[in-house]
Amino acid sequence: MDKSCHILCQLPIKDRKYPSLSSKLDEIWKKAYDEGRFHLLDGILYHRTKHTCVIELTDRTLINTILHECHDSVAAGHLSEDRTLERLKTCSWWPNWKKDVAEYCQTCDRFQKANRATGKNFGMMIQI
């Protein structure tokens, strides 16, 4: 378990009177904690946004599994980075998750081969 996640599980989420523990949180976790985005329910840490409340992930193997299911699986169909982000934000959250999704999509060979470049076509060559 990640150090910051372990500290958050010890903190009463509704009561922010523990500056000694909250000061030990990493910067990303501290900002979300100060904004009241974490909820602990039945021992599971949830991250709340405007529209959803999703499970907090810290285990790298779980993160890779979720990325695989939301991008590589047959049901996912090697979605673009934006679509993978949209799909992921409905089920899970972890610090720097957008950066991880971008890296995962960029390292996916199948996606890079199938993804066609967008924009204008190159013009005709002009002989000098």
From TrEMBL:
It holds the Pfam family Integrase_H2C2. Residues 59-116 form the Integrase zinc-binding domain. This is Integrase zinc-binding domain-containing protein.
